[in-house]
Amino acid sequence: MSARRLALAAALTAGLLLTACGSEEPDVTIGLITKQEANPYWVTMREVAEATARDENVELLTAAGTSDVDVDSQIAALQEMTAQGATGILIAPTDSQALVPAIEEARQAGVTVIAVDTPTDPESAVDAVFASDNHEAGELIGQYAAAKVVELGLTPRIALLDLAPGIASGEQRRAGFLAGFGLEEDDPQIVGSIDTEGDQAKGEAAMAELLAQDPGINVVYAVNEPAALGAVTALDEAGVGPDEVVLVTVDGGCEAIKNAVRPGDIDATAQQFPENMAREGVTALAKHARGGAAPSGFLNTGVVLITGNPAPGIESRDVAFGVRNCWGD
């Protein structure tokens, strides 16, 4: 009898072990490739992705380039993460077209790819896009700037601080700004445009160059907050006060809102939510790797106009809202 009981106990123990092993979630490895680490926007995205990966019990591989236009580093990261067994990769493309062949190669190897922040061209090159509506972001600040110009009685002299050719997010923001302001590309109110690569020092140099061409610039569009902060420095050095120019941009980062929007150096910013992109992206890839639905289509992670100086007829939220929600709603 004791032998039979021992055998039964052994069988039950083996069954419990098999059940426990069968209930464990399979190991999952996914990747995140951002543009750079100098811009706190990308640092925040990485940090939230890492926290979400811990919550989802997945391994997260991370990589970043040296700038917003560093294509080669992103190609190498895609290849390395694929070789390391990543089942899904989030990527913010530094060039919406140049990255497509490497992305397609990863997908052919069975990797699910989500573009975050910046769409590919064509968007169908990835499985899904999790991002702000960049055209809407540009349109919001364009409408604001147009209303402010009317309120202040200005004759617009407009400077455009762009990102770089081939990056869809920058192109969409510029197009949205022009549409929101009511401008065509060849409008004589546009003094000029210079690519900044979203970099503060290059934004400062670009603003100084445009002011040298036309010291009467009174409207500035900057593709992101680092470029806008560079413009603030150049304007200050040229003796142009914040009450003489309407400066608008996109991002909605905590420090920029506190230190530039609040005092009025930046008049308005279209706040994005990279935390949402990272959180939703990691969660979607983790679920898909464990048998859930594949991510697809466009997930709009939201955009809100933030200003400390509202414009007539333009919907916006105040600085306090911007600080409470900076980069994650």
From TrEMBL:
MF GO annotations: carbohydrate binding
Keyword Zinc tagged: no
Signal peptide: 1-22
InterPro entries: Peripla_BP_I, SBP_2_dom
Localisation: Cell envelope
UniProt keyword Nucleotidyltransferase, yes or no: no
Gene3D superfamilies in UniProt: 3.40.50.2300
One GO cellular component, as annotated: cell envelope
Domain Periplasmic binding protein: 30-291
Keywords from the UniProt entry: Signal
Domain of life: Bacteria
Protein family according to the UniProt entry: Belongs to the bacterial solute-binding protein 2 family.
Official protein name in the record: Sugar ABC transporter substrate-binding protein
Organism: Ornithinimicrobium ciconiae
Lineage of the organism: Bacteria, Bacillati, Actinomycetota, Actinomycetes, Micrococcales
